[in-house]
Amino acid sequence: MKKWIWILLICSNTTLAAEHSVSAIIDTRLSHTQGIDSYANGGLGKFRFDEGNQLSLAQAGLTYKVDWENPLSAQVTANGYIDGTRDGIGLTEAFIKYRGLPLDNGLRLHAKLGLMYPSISLENIATAWSSPYTLSYSAINSWLGEEFRHLGAELTLERLGKFHSSKHDFSVSAAIFQNNDTVGAMLAWHGWTISSRQTLSHETLPLSNMPSLDGGSLDEQARDSAPFIELDNRFGYHVHAKWKIKGKGDFFFGYYDNNADTTIVKNGQYTWLTQFYHAGMRFRLPYKIELISQFINGDTLMQSPQAIDVVNNEYQSAFLLLSRRWDKHRITMRVEHFDVTDNDLTPDDDNNEKGQALTASYQYRLLKNWFIQAEYNYLDSTRPARIEQNLPSTLTEQQYQLATRWYF
Asked: For 10-21, b where at least 16 C-beta lie within 10 A, e where not — what string?
């Protein structure tokens, strides 16, 4: 992966006239969590922070962009954390982008090449993949931030409605990628989470103290999952379509498949075949209320080298978010549901899970780019595997957060 990132940076070194810009976010946060040890620290808690009080640099994100006097541009994003869990700094995205001029018939081509998120999130649209709505992401986008980043290329064909006296724009996109062969492991072994941490490109993710890892069915599995590695040299793909209504909102639908060969294991890292459909909408309601909703449904499979199912899960999650901004204020409410269904026969690895969550967030703008934000998170989940670690199967967790966020 490092080789590819250096190639991108070298390719962006050009003598063409260019515009350079830097944007950043500094998110300092005080949190109080009522729950158990965080998933981010190898626990089975659903929130980012461990139980108790925490003062943290929750995100220090920096994005550098260069726009040349041609259709090409480049972007590099880094994030850093001092959160008492896994302090660190590193790259989260680095890509080159092509944005063509529209033809007379309104068609236009876009392309991206490099290290990037799949084009799915409707929440994380601010600087350094932060969310302007809430401090903690939905379960869907928390999973994207933890296990998804790939090295690949994406091509988009867009039809602009203004060339046809229409308010409707349509686009279709197709991406091929590598370096996402273990995606699904963390969803299986700690389940859905409500988080605000993006995994850095060089990081590995700790697994919980599952009995199956110590002489059980998962004894050959490494104690950390490496989310952004290539094991089988096969390409995955992601296709999606979008319909945008000018001044109203947009709708999209897509399908993701990492196309992994599930018989391969290297250095304790197994390939996971992970596939899902996703749909979403963003719409403007009366009284300047913004509605965002997303849904995901799919499955993930991990096998032994003898092609025997070890983990075979179905999963789904959905959320509905309502947000209203006026003057210096923004109020956001989000409700969501998630579950995982374990379909395999592995006796010491129960991945079944069901839960729901509620988030209420209030933001106040002190200055043009300086905000304070207060948030409450409630999450109720049932996960039988917690019993194996002397934890309750059914658990209610709550989190209170107060943040100051500076964008520049």
From this structure: eebeeeeebeee
